[in-house]
């Protein structure tokens, strides 16, 4: 059976992810206690269900330490198990809770365990949840949903479903340094040293996917040299990540606004590695 475990920080988009999986034909269960995971899988297997997605969150805090061993048991039984962990910056999470006017799911649980009578702040709840879920974050692929719309996140998860059978997925992600470095990248390359198309009035409204911007940067010797250096670095170390049984390797390419130079470099690198690897492309500032 193909199993996807979805976890992450409250407000980071777990419900969105689970809905995407349900639309894709997965049998979905929300807020599953980890202690029930193996029994549920056995039941689903007896009913001939071939793919399922389960959301596990911090409300099962006392059972989270057992998730890693449970995954190993399921894999030993022949099941394909992957973990998707969603996170976001504290600023983003605070804004989302403010918009929905909902309390943090852990607020009442943590308050009951706290000696002091004063209520916990939202920031305290978020940090406590990060600490509780830390063991799960390193079990699978992390997606930083900061500044992402729900529709953008849906599209990213759909892309991942399409290539989920690859031994390693090479992810190229453009971003804006003025917004911040994403939390989900393994390597970060800074392309702000390249000439900026933003200062050309004709190129300013375009992106690094438009031919006029591509032509402009292709004419820059620095762009070619930087591309080669990044490409050689990834090609050299990619086999090591494969030997380490990594499922994902995310390469972040950043420029000032995440519109021209980083997008150009991501697209160019992706075209090269698509010849031999399973590649996904993400553009954070080009929604």
TrEMBL record:
It comes from the Bacteria. ATP binds at residues 8-15. Residues 1-162 form the RapZ-like N-terminal domain. GTP binds at residues 57-60. GO terms for molecular function: ATP binding; GTP binding. Residues 170-285 form the RapZ C-terminal domain. Keywords: ATP-binding, GTP-binding, Nucleotide-binding. Pfam families: PapZ_C, RapZ-like_N. InterPro entries: P-loop_NTPase, RapZ-like, RapZ-like_N, RapZ_C. HAMAP family: RapZ_like. PANTHER family: RNASE ADAPTER PROTEIN RAPZ (PTHR30448:SF0). NCBIfam families: PRK05416.1. This is RNase adapter RapZ. The gene is rapZ.
């Amino acid at each position: 059976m193909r199993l996807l475990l979805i976890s992450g920080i409250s407000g980071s988009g777990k419900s969105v992810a689970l809905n995407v999986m349900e639309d894709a034909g997965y049998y979905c269960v929300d807020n599953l206690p980890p202690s029930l995971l193996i029994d549920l899988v056995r039941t689903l297997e007896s009913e001939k269900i071939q793919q399922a997605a389960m959301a596990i969150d911090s409300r099962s805090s006392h059972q989270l330490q057992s998730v890693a061993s449970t995954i190993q048991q399921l894999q030993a039984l022949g099941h394909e198990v992957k973990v998707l962990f969603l996170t976001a910056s504290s600023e983003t999470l605070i804004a989302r809770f403010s918009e929905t006017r909902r309390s943090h799911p852990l607020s009442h649980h943590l308050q009951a365990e706290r000696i002091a009578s004063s209520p916990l702040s939202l920031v305290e709840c978020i940090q406590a949840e990060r600490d509780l879920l830390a063991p799960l974050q390193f079990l699978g692929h992390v997606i930083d949903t900061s500044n992402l719309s729900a529709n953008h996140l849906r599209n990213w998860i759909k892309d991942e479903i399409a290539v989920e059978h690859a031994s390693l997925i090479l992810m190229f992600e453009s971003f804006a340094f003025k917004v911040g470095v994403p939390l989900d990248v393994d390597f970060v390359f800074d392309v702000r040293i390249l000439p900026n198309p933003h200062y050309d009035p004709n190129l300013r409204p375009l992106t690094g996917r438009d031919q006029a911007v591509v032509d402009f940067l292709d004419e820059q010797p620095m762009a070619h040299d930087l591309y080669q250096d990044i490409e050689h670095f990834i090609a050299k170390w990619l086999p090591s990540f494969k030997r380490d049984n990594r499922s994902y390797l995310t390469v972040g390419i950043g420029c000032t606004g995440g519109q021209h130079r980083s997008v150009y470099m991501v697209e160019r690198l992706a075209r090269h590695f698509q010849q031999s690897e399973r590649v996904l492309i993400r553009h954070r500032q080009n929604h």
